[in-house]
Write a structure and sequence with these properties.
This is 4-hydroxymandelate oxidase. Keywords: Flavoprotein, FMN, Oxidoreductase. It is a single chain. By secondary structure, the chain is of the alpha/beta class. Helix content is 40%, strand content 12%. It has 14 helices and 12 strands. It has an 8-stranded parallel β-barrel, surrounded by 7 helices. Helix 2 runs antiparallel to helix 14, helix 5 runs parallel beside helix 6 and helix 11 crosses helix 12. The longest helix is centred in the C-terminal third of the chain and has 32 residues, at 320-351. The two termini are 14 Å apart. The model is unreliable at 1-6 (pLDDT under 50). Bound molecules: flavin mononucleotide (FMN). Flavin mononucleotide binds at residues 33-34, 47, 85-88, 115, 117, 136, 164, 241, 263, 265-266, 268, 296-299, 318-320.
Length: 382
């Protein structure tokens, strides 16, 4: 279908067309790093497939001609329920790296989560921002260094702390092992003020420089006590990213965590973990209304966003599609990807006879009959 689509070359009209354009432009091993998942990439595929199991239940004759997708979160009203997910090493996608993404997100009035592993400092990114920023924290072996990142994020005006909890060690990303993937010498984790370890830049088939670096740096014994301590050490709202079960949601709520991001890291960590959408209802139940619930993984259409809302998400994060926009067209591409997705969401809301994001409930979706048409990914990683 895409082969004959000349328009996709110059003017993508959806996220899949951005993927196609980006794939042509990206350096192959960087594309693999961005597109890939762990092991057999079953969880990566499951994230997409999960959305196909639900259909929308539109209501007719609503008499409403406006839609409002704004969402109140942690004391401020975000213009839309879309957030830019934390993605490390964006210098792989564009020379301006995260600066372009922050600018692109700002132009689309969309909040962004900045990764610990950004190629620009969190302070530089705060200066370039015109929409809210949250900081994503990887807990490092050195607790002082970890806390210093939190303090820097607070001082720079970040509005929430997202602690990623699904990566005590890195998933085996076989594409990277095959490619001997390593970070190019001109890119470094700029928030970590020490010299980057040589492993990060050493390309050797059968190893991943990024995985070796994670092994050296990250706290492999990350536990609830670390998270509870961090919660006490900051006044920022704290979210846990990577929760997939009712039990962990219950515990997060009971220790006062403010938000949960239902996520399997875009299928890059435990292969065999469930699709995020599939476990959203049980996480919502476990949290029992005590935490705000966000979701990421596999969102590629406005209707996906609506299904996530109907199943209990307050907001969603978008990962790889942001990189497609960044690769294809820099900051403008990021803005365009976010605008396309928001326009699709508003359209879907209107065609479902709804006017407010906050009023969407479970009655808007039903399980699809088995053997329905189904969305088929034209290429892997989309
Ligand atoms: C290239 C890449 C780098 C990522 N880096 C981070 C990171 O630094 N921190 C983090 O918490 N998650 C990271 N993630 C996971 C994303 O935040 C998000 O969970 C995932 O991409 C969502 O799935 P999607 O790509 O299908 O939208 C990364 C994902 C990708 C594709």
């Amino acid at each position: 279908m895409f082969e004959h689509n000349v328009g996709a070359e110059s003017n993508p009209v959806n996220l899949a067309e951005y993927a196609r354009l980006a794939r042509k432009r990206a350096e192959p091993s960087a594309w693999d790093f961005i597109a890939g998942g762990s092991d057999d990439e079953r969880t990566l595929a499951a994230n997409r497939a999960a959305f196909e199991r639900w259909t929308l239940r539109p209501r007719i004759l609503s008499g409403r001609d406006t839609v409002d997708v704004s969402v109140p979160l942690f004391g401020r009203t975000l213009a839309s329920p879309l957030l830019v997910a934390p993605i490390g090493y964006q210098g792989l996608a564009h020379p301006a790296a995260e600066v372009a993404t922050v600018q692109g997100a700002g132009a689309a009035h969309t909040a962004m989560v900045v990764s610990t592993m950004s190629n620009r400092t969190l302070e530089d990114l705060a200066r370039a921002a015109s929409a809210p920023l949250w900081f994503q924290l990887y807990c490092l072996k050195d607790p002082e260094l970890t806390l210093s990142l939190v303090r820097r994020a607070e001082s720079a005006g970040y509005e929430a702390l997202v602690i990623t909890v699904d990566m005590p060690r890195m998933g085996r990303r076989e594409r990277d092992l095959r490619n001997g993937f390593a970070l190019p010498a001109h890119l470094r984790p700029s928030n970590l003020l020490m010299e980057a370890s040589p492993e990060l830049h050493r390309s050797q088939q059968g190893t991943s420089g990024v995985a070796l670096h994670v092994g050296q740096l990250f706290d492999a014994a990350l536990s609830w006590s670390t998270v509870e301590r961090l919660k006490q050490q900051t006044a920022l709202p704290v979210l846990l990213k990577g929760v997939l079960t009712r039990e962990d949601a219950q515990r997060a709520a009971s220790v006062g965590i403010d938000g949960i991001i239902v996520s399997n890291h875009g299928g890059r960590q435990l292969d065999g973990a469930p699709a995020s959408l599939d476990v959203l209802p049980e996480v919502v139940e476990g949290a029992g209304g005590r935490c705000r619930i966000l979701l990421d993984g596999g969102i590629r259409r406005g209707t996906d966003v609506l299904k996530a809302r109907a199943l209990g998400a307050d907001a969603v994060l978008i990962g790889r599609p942001i990189m497609w926009g960044l690769i294809a067209r820099g900051a403008e591409g990021v803005t365009d990807v976010l605008r396309l997705l928001r326009a699709e969401l508003e359209q879907a809301l209107a065609l479902c006879g709804q006017s407010r994001w906050t009023e969407i409930d479970r009655s808007l979706v039903a399980l699809a009959p088995p053997c329905g048409g189904g969305w088929s990914a034209p290429e892997e990683g989309l």
